[in-house]
Design a protein that fits this description.
The protein is an all-alpha fold and about 160 residues long. It has a single domain, classed as Butyryl-CoA Dehydrogenase, subunit A, domain 3, CATH 1.20.140. The chain is built from 10 helices and no strands.
Length: about 160
């Protein structure tokens, strides 16, 4: 490990870009995504000597935890769930947020790190301190739950049926 603060400065642009991307993908709001990315990088800097060798997964885990904490807050949840959806994309994003919040914590962490942050299974396993097999199990169960909750295939099948009629 033994990385210097200079190495943090070198890694900062890529780490910030990935943290911002993960936060924005879930929240859909630029200002809040920027704030959470900055907070994640500040926390990373404080622990740089320990986390330098796995900085990207660490930053992404901190970011997703911050996003989830933000979504859990009562006032934020109320605002998210009661605002009218301006278009289909924001309605889909709200549905995804609700579905993610219903998942058990371990499944949610795996799904977000693996599919939202696009980390390989091996890095997700390192971040969560578990085996690759455990990551695969939680990913499979989490995705199955999301499929049941979100039911995208049924929606598309209904549209095609309507077109035929």
């Amino acid at each position: 490990m033994g990385q210097s603060p200079q190495n943090f400065e070198t890694a900062f642009p890529d780490l910030y870009r990935r943290a911002y991307s993960a936060a924005f993908t879930i929240l859909g709001r630029r200002a809040e995504a920027e704030d959470l990315a900055q907070e994640a990088l500040a926390r990373t800097y404080l622990r740089w000597e320990k986390v330098a060798s796995y900085a990207t997964p660490f930053v992404l885990r901190v970011t997703t935890n911050l996003v989830i904490d933000k979504l859990r807050r009562h006032t934020m949840a109320r605002r998210l769930f009661t605002r009218p959806a301006a278009d289909e994309e924001s309605a889909d994003r709200i549905d995804l947020q609700r579905a993610l919040l219903r998942l058990p914590e371990r499944q949610r962490n795996v799904v977000v790190l693996r599919y939202v942050c696009d980390l390989p299974e091996s890095e997700v396993a390192i971040v969560l301190g578990c085996t690759i097999g455990t990551v695969k199990t939680h990913a499979s169960r989490g995705l199955a739950s999301l499929r049941r909750t979100l039911k995208p295939v049924q929606f598309m099948a209904d549209q095609e049926t309507e077109k035929r009629l």
